[in-house]
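Memo to structure team: turn this sequence into structure tokens by end of day. - J.P.
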Amino acid sequence: MSCQSGRHVFYLVAYFEIELKPRATFEPPQHSCCRPRRTGGGVTLYIRDDIPFTVLLDFFNDYVTATWILLRPIMHDPLILCLLYHPPNLLKTQKNSTIDHLLSTASKLLAKHTSSKFIICGDFNDLDTSPLTMVLPLHQLVDFPTRGNHTLDSIFTACEEYLT
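Reply from structure team:
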């Protein structure tokens, strides 16, 4: 049995701003859970068991809720995935720290893993994400409102073929 909806099989299932209790009962079959140890909201990723992955702990930041993962799907290029939860209403210095973290980490990883595909996704709330597309070779896939009239949830990538 695999995690599926209708005819689609999901290899990655991501949740943002979710409060799962330590003993949450939601666990897609044949998927491993990847979640930083934090209380309250944040990011949670379920990765299908047949996809080798490494959580890139060197890029963990106490002030930014971002999880960086290197996935090595069989028969495909490696994929670097960043899951971000950016709380709303932070100070400008905190917003700048988030953008600085995303840009510096992404630049380091792209330089080190030159053949890897790259995705940054998550709940960005009121964060100005324009530096992501101006500095990195990425573009925004979500071009419609995700909450009310605002696009708060975004996917930045140059590899649409990995997404459904």
